[in-house]
Amino acid sequence: MLARLGLPLSLLLLAALASLIIAIGVGSAQISPAQIWQVVMGNNMQGEGDALAHTMVIDLRLPRALSAFAVGGLLAVAGALMQVLLRNPLADPYVLGLSGGASIGALAAMLGGLGGLVISGSAFGGALLSTFLVFGLAHGSGGWTPSRLLLTGVVVAAGWGAVITLILALSPAERLPGMLYWLMGDLSYARTPWPPLLLLLATCVVLIPLGRSLNVLARGPQQAAALGVAVRPLEWCIYIAASLLTAAAVTTAGSIGFVGLVVPHMLRLLLGNDQRLILPACALAGGTLLVLADTLARTMIAPEQLPVGVITALLGVPTFLFLLYRSR
């Protein structure tokens, strides 16, 4: 079992490290892997060029690359959990309207002229509000089912979309660019990667031991109950975990599409449907994908930067169509 899990995870870990080295080294000023190693290990560096390399690595590129890795991993793991919860391979982290709720909170803070931590806090609060709203409306008097939860999330997301359009229509022209970049996903202001990284690590540590129960739940609640799985508490755990992961990702980088949909779907086609392997693989592959996408976003038309959500959409649409064609 360990050997079967070890090889693909080792390859994904190497790919993740390579993507981080590329993200740190590529830009307006190239930094060699040897310089990156010296800076990260804290070796004494002298000269103006070495000081510039230290500033670019430690203060600029490394925090952004780690933030991209954390956000990509959070979205991919959340997508895998939502697909298990809803038993739908097309489910993604935003299907229950969390992105819309977070967007309302962030845009309202921007419209009020606030910034920094207030925007992040408002986005997180909006995501949690959307979570409680969807769960409360879907629960009703007879409990919730995956189909009822999905339909409620779709309707709530449509409502949030209308409110977002209204806010953009009423916003001053000078604040629209920042709002639009946030809605399309932007890592330019992500400078604190450690909270989402720690959340990603903690989630994987907690959920991987539940992999067998998640495997059984993916086959249906009746079969899971017959095999001794506590279905309802496990579904609540999945829903809460996926909501927190999505809220943290949206708070850090705005709305970034396709990562939580394409990565779990691709890994299931390549590695099977064992959640003990899929969840850590999603964390590594999702982080790697978003790090490379963000590197493209900031270098493709340098010195201008593109929203990273544009790159993930351009990569995700043809990839997902190809995966659907292969799995007919």
From TrEMBL:
Membrane topology term: Multi-pass membrane protein
Gene3D superfamilies: ABC transporter involved in vitamin B12 uptake, BtuC
Leader sequence segment: none
One GO location term (cellular component): plasma membrane
Subcellular location per the Swiss-Prot or TrEMBL entry: Cell membrane
UniProt cross-references to InterPro entries, sorted A to Z: ABC_BtuC-like, ABC_transptr_permease_BtuC
Record GO terms (molecular function): transmembrane transporter activity
Stretches that traverse the bilayer: 65-86, 93-111, 117-137, 149-173, 193-215, 236-263, 275-293, 305-325
PANTHER family in alphabetical order: ABC TRANSPORTER PERMEASE PROTEIN MJ0876-RELATED, FERRIC ENTEROBACTIN TRANSPORT SYSTEM PERMEASE PROTEIN
Protein's name in the database: Iron ABC transporter permease
